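Consider the following assembly input.
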Amino acid sequence: MSSFFDPLPWLVMLPLVWGTIAFMLGAGRGARLAIVAIALQLLLALKLAGQMLEGGARSYAVGGWGAPLGIDLAADGLAAAMMLLTQAVALPLAVYARGYFAARPAGSALFWPITGYLLAALNALFLSADLFNIYVTLELLGLAAVGLVAIAGGKQPLAAAMRYLLATLLGSGAYLLGVALIYGAYGSVSLEVLHPLVAAEAPLAVMLAAVLMLLGLLLKTALFPFHFWLPPAHGGAPAPVSALLSALVVKASFYLVVRLWLELFAPLATPAAAQLIGLLGAAAILWGSWHALTQTRLKMLVAYSTVAQIGYLFLLFPLATPETAASAFQGGVMQAMAHGLAKAAMFAAAGSMIVATGRDDISHLGGVGVQLPLTLFTFGMAGVTLMGLPPSAGFSAKWLLLMAAVESGQWWWVMLMIGGGLLSAAYVFKVLRRAFLPVAEGDHVTPVPRVLEWSAFALALAAVVLGLYGEPLLQLLMVGRMA
Amino acid sequence: MSDAWMPLGVVLSSFLPGLVIFFLAESRIRLRTALNLVGAFAKLGLIGVMLWGVVNEHEYVFRHTVLPGLDLVLKADALALLFVTLSAVLWLFTTFYAIGYLEGSPHRSRFFGFFSLCVTATVGVAMAGNLFTFFLFYELLTLSTYPLVVHRGTEKALRAGHVYLAYTLGGGAVLLVGTVWLYGLAGQVDFAHGGALAALPPESFAQLQVIFLLLIAGVGVKAALVPLHGWLPMAMVAPAPVSALLHAVAVVKAGAFGIVRIVYEVYGIEFAQSLDLLTPLAFAAAATILWGSLRALFQDDLKRRLAYSTVSQVSYIALGIALFGPVGTVGGLVHLVHQGIMKITLFFCAGNYAETLGIHKVSEMDGAGRRMPLTTLAFSVAALGMMGAPLTAGAVSKAWLMDGAHAADMGWAVAVLWTSSLLNAAYFLPILWRAWFRPAPRKWPKENIAVRGWRETAWLLLLPPLATGLAVVMIGIFAEAFWSPLTWARLIADREYLQ
């Protein structure tokens, strides 16, 4: 294959390049360039997925050097799927952001360059083949994400950004410590090299490293009880930023937990530890849903819903018993996809409602149903995915996880997942119910640009379509896995 | 060419117009009506072709794999078409009625959009070929009826919507638990005559009994089985066309139909009998029949009285199914159609009284028959039908149910049916007596539409109940004709029992 057109390096290079150009163009510019480039990235990600369905897992030696001297990029089905998700979410969001910042310019100055770097960091993270590269991309991702929260300006967003910065630095610090311990024990950071070594013998230092790295990543993923930084950061940022953060950034550290737990540290993982992670997930579902229900601000409700939905992701680990590993893994990743698309749609719809009503307050949503029917419909459709009702990717995810739970006889997880679905319904309908009311006296609901409504709708629709045509994705996920 | 697209076409013929209608401006009345009618007639056309095919032992199956081991299956067999035909025909009548009823009121695009989605969900429930597909449309029905229940946007409507959601989503969750458990135990099983679970090893029978309970409880919420019926009377705050089509036909029948599918085509009637599942179901149905009728006696609000009557009448279907034997089956199935036609007539009429004269209560009905003779005639025919009076559809279903109870040696069920008939008379006859024989008040509560010659109210409000009222008599008198619901129900029972 002619390596010049190889999607692997371009998926990292392209966002770096357009991010830099956007930076040079000046404050708030570069939106159109970004949209075209992200569309190109989406095509590249599709091409990569197509290549892998035909020819299996891929790798690429940057500059032709190859590890251990150079840097290897590697992609298996999981990485390819995550990259597809990233570009598929980013494209409608970029279109949305352009319209949103035209209506509300606050915080748009550095949005495009930082988003470029954020996407580059995400793609590089998914393609990294060694623990140290992962650290670098993780750090870059964290800084870009904090930057996006901070650019909104104002006292509250800055405080949220500082808290977020603290959490993300602490998380990557713990991760780096773990990497150092592993390097000390085995003298390598390459995932491929380490895999058989860890399986053969794991001294205590490696156990400690595994715990440190996982804790760091859980902090970054905001799994209960490490979620304290997420609601203010996601709820306070401008809507396109909230969407990017909730849909994609927390998924990156989740992706790493999956990689490490199911592959590198698989020999060390015990069923008890898996149950413990699952319990944290359960607590996240209950805690997050409950807090979502009690919020008065729309975006805080959506942010707490993210806390709850992250809980579902971690049910993958207790459900991945030897017999049900494949279905739990597919269900967990499908949940990441479903939540990514639906939460981006939901934050975007919430942003449109805020633009239309001029305030971020659930009790003043009356009239939205009349003025912005499509946006309300989008919110509802995204809600259906979060509730896990068919047809949606959220249902497919839940179904796979439920089957894994039933087949491994773990009934408590069945009850939790179905009960959690009802809780999501409660907070979703809390919003819908308000929006059906007529406009309250003294409130105004102004129409919003159509592009805001349709780009959000596209995201919600994607979550439903993925629920109807999930099979190719599941095939892709199994590329390069010993199931 | 394959004909697998036809069941899908039946679903899409209301789904696609529904989607378009959402985006139409309020003022595009003609386009909206045209879309609705084109959809309704396209649906009827497809159904007509498939009815012919099914008579000739053909089945139409559409299958799409969502996940490995999880197929979306739409199947038009005899049982599905019984319910599909009922929904499609009544949808057409209700569309006319709703156009007249909502004339000039706000948010009509939203109303008709969700209305079409509801019908989509109903025909989906009817043609679902396995439990997953059934669950999908069952939940879609919940989600698309909610906006119609809260359509008026009043505090009362929102509260009713709340209760409605709590019941139906809760029921859906229980149904999902049962479905997941069953898929885990038996894998993917399509609905089929005689069921497919009898082949499972005997040690799983205890689990199957629990799953049956879960599934029936899940669909029992929509079928308004006591004590899961609380949402139905509250949901009566919805506009009359919604009460008429959805709460008298679509939603409660989706539940009742679910019971039919689960008993006959998941478990198989003989297997269900051998697991001792039918007698408890019969008791639950009998309790619901009596409780609903008793509560109806004490309601002064006309729509609430009709709602409790629905609670009672829908369980005739469950009772007919639980009577182990083909005669009871015919009675249950035919009542599914008969009750729908009779009840929709009653709700149309109740809507007419409210719209024309502002009558909402039974105590306000005095003399309504002289002011609105045609509406009251239709109401009377349907009410007599509900009591099981001769020459009406109700007489046919009751006769078959009674014979079924005798055939199954369940004397107590006969007693339940007789008692219920008496109770029906006790709560319907006073209404008729007031309407026909009591003098009219000097002033109606709120007269909106004036009389003009024969036209006691708007044509679009008057014609649908007259048509369905006529149907109540026709299918009662011509029960043996080839086109009658009874003939079709017997065809289904033959196929279910002979496998």
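The mean pLDDT of chain B is 90. Ask yourself how this observation constrains the way the partners meet.
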